[in-house]
Write a structure and sequence with these properties.
Largest sheet: 7 strands, antiparallel
Strand content: 25-35%
Number of domains: 1
Number of helices: 4
Number of strands: 7
Length: 169
Amino acid sequence: MDRSARSLLQVEVNGELMPGLIVYGLRPDSCLAQVRYSEKLWPASTEPVAVRLGGDGWEVLAWELQLPTWPVGKQFTSAIRRTLEGMIAAGCVVAWVGAEGLPFCDPPLLFEEACLADGVLAWLAASGEFDCPLQPDRPLDPISPESLAKLRAYALPLAGLDDGPVVSS
């Protein structure tokens, strides 16, 4: 059985599961910047489905990105980073990659290890800190608990996660 990330990661399209990723971004709910998707990053993809979730002072943006073909190696990592940069450019303090069926929680549980462990496959902070262990032809490899803790620290003030320290850039 194929256990590669490419074979396991999916998005829902018209009620059917298709190969793909979900790209998320967390930003203030007062942000009005438009998120711009570049089809140049994922040439074979279809137009992503945009989703918004919101709460008291926060908004999570999501692109459900169907990928009939996947870049590999450095091209894949570059496409992930540049896609996440699109979320950051739209006012997000953090952006990350997940997929249908992987753990996801709204703030204040967002990025809690008990909730989101194994649910974040790559991430980028507005400071530029980036982590992407994900590769399509390797087994699914979420970020480490240490990396998840860093991501959580960047999101603390916005998501009302707690009043702990904030990572400085």
